[in-house]
Design goal:
Number of helices: 12
Largest sheet: 6 strands, antiparallel
Strand content: 15-25%
Number of domains: 4
Structural class: alpha+beta
Shape: extended
Order of helices and strands: HHHHEHHEEEEEEEEEHEEEHHEHHH
Length: 478
């Protein structure tokens, strides 16, 4: 062993003596979930419904929640619990933005009549709202004779098993509740009926289902149910995530608490009158003192002191001071927590930008664009599949072999500049000569005009500017 090896060995021994590392002991943790997936769906539905009485009843019965505003019960007196309505506004606004941006559907001509008969646009709008609120769901195609029906079933009634969709429907009969489970697979639909204990019973147990075939097979490699999901849940594998999950429920609860405290402070801060008993209004019929009411004639009776030199007939008016700035600050911060990662306040028409620059507001608006792009990306995959399923179902009704079509669904650009801004931008580009006439017309009108109209517009502009060129005359033409 060389001298260098001996030195290295001694250094390693010293390091071992100086630094002794012991491995951390293994630990196990037991964490109890206080809500099931079904409970979370009900909670999201109630946030969207926005009924204060329903929220109070739900959270009061929900076990395991500590310190929540809606689940708390006041020990004395009355507390007016106010709901902001923000959850429904978020979902409805996002659905409107996406639905209004659906530029067009490239599909066979026969789709136009089918889309109108099934009310396709309205169904898609409702599907967006239900999926945002509940996490996922599925479009369902039904056939009644020679007519096709289309509806959307939310996550509360859907189950996904591999590539199949199971839709549950409850039917009351014989003072009992039965559940019909329809399993939609490619090329078939299987129906089974279960009682309240989960035991399978014949379909004719419910008179309404007596004529339903337990197993239906049809031609074509497609399913009559098309699933839809925007965000994947990390808690429940294979299922979607509601935009009200991930802590948003606590944010909504906190926002409602601040609003309720604010209104309670406003009510408590009304003007108070201290009136001597001798000056209290009396009933003209029997001379008794009139009791104060909560909103109108509100006063506090005081005994007149018997002190020399003191005016016993003085009415004192007192109004408590309310710290509005503290409430506004708390409300703004809670509201931003509710909207964080979903939409910009400017998208909802909420002015909280007095402390922010214009650039900061534009950056916040990108949040809405990101959420919108996530929704449209999922719809661009699901809607062509749905349209193809409707068209192939139409083929089966007509007795012809189902054929898959090329279908595309496109969405416009969110936050595109208005027409005046486009005119100003295109005009500057034309002045500097950095944009052709064809590009100017295309940028100005976009998809609102067809190619034939835009071509004629280009010819008109070039003619007015004298930019049209003609063929040079030949010698024979002179």
């Amino acid at each position: 062993m060389s001298i260098f090896d001996k030195i290295g060995e001694r250094m390693r021994e010293k390091v071992k003596n100086w630094l002794r590392l012991n491995p951390a002991p293994q630990q196990s943790f037991n964490i109890n979930e206080y809500t099931t997936r079904e409970t979370e769906i009900i909670r999201s539905q109630l946030w969207y419904r926005g009924d204060a009485n329903e929220l109070y009843q739900f959270f009061h019965q929900l076990s395991g929640v500590q310190g929540g505003f809606w689940g708390s019960v006041p020990s004395g007196g009355t507390v007016r619990k106010v709901h902001s309505g923000i959850p429904a506004i978020i979902a409805d606004t996002l659905a409107y933005i996406v639905k209004s941006d659906m530029d067009g559907i490239e599909a066979p001509d026969e789709w136009n009549d089918l889309a109108e008969s099934v009310d396709f646009t309205s169904i898609v709008g409702q599907a967006i709202v239900d999926t945002l609120v509940e996490g996922d769901g599925a479009f369902r195609i039904s056939v009644n004779g020679d007519k096709i029906g289309l509806d959307f079933i939310g996550a509360s009634r859907c189950d996904f098993v591999e590539d199949d969709v199971i839709i549950h429907t409850q039917y009351p009969a014989k003072n009992r509740i039965f559940t019909l489970s329809d399993r939609y697979s490619k090329g078939s639909v299987e129906s089974r009926l279960y009682d309240e204990n989960g035991h399978e019973v014949p379909l004719d147990t419910v008179p309404e289902l007596a004529d339903i075939e337990p197993y239906i097979k049809f031609s074509g490699d497609y399913s009559l149910a098309v699933p839809l999901m925007f965000y994947a849940s990390k808690k429940y594998k294979g299922r979607g995530k509601s935009i009200f999950d991930g802590g948003k429920s606590d944010c909504f609860d906190s926002l409602d608490e601040i609003i309720s405290q604010w209104w309670d402070a406003v009510r408590a801060g009304r003007v108070k009158q201290y009136i001597p008993e001798s000056m209290i209004p009396r009933d003209p019929h029997n001379g008794s003192l009139l009791p104060p009411d909560q909103f109108g004639n509100n006063y506090i009776s005081v005994s007149a002191p018997i002190i020399e030199g003191v005016n016993n007939q003085e009415i004192k008016v007192v109004q408590p001071e309310i710290n509005y700035e503290a409430f506004v600050s708390a409300y703004t911060n809670a509201l931003l927590m509710c909207l964080q990662g979903l939409v910009s306040p400017a998208t909802l028409g909420i002015d909280v930008g007095k402390m922010s620059s214009a650039d900061a507001q534009r950056e916040k608006k990108d949040v809405t664009g990101n959420t919108r792009n996530t929704i449209t990306a999922a719809l661009e995959k699901a809607l062509p599949q749905l349209i193809n399923a409707v068209l192939m179902t139409y083929d089966n009704i007509r007795g012809i072999a189902p054929v898959k079509r090329d279908v595309t669904v496109s969405f416009g650009e969110y936050g595109a500049p208005d027409f005046d801004s486009r005119i100003e931008t295109v005009g500057k580009a034309a002045t500097y000569g950095v944009m052709s006439v064809e590009t100017q017309v295309d940028e100005l009108w976009g998809a609102s005009k067809d190619d034939e109209w835009k071509s004629a517009e280009v010819q008109r502009i070039m003619s007015e500017k004298g930019l049209l060129t003609a063929n040079e005359p030949s010698v024979g033409d002179m």
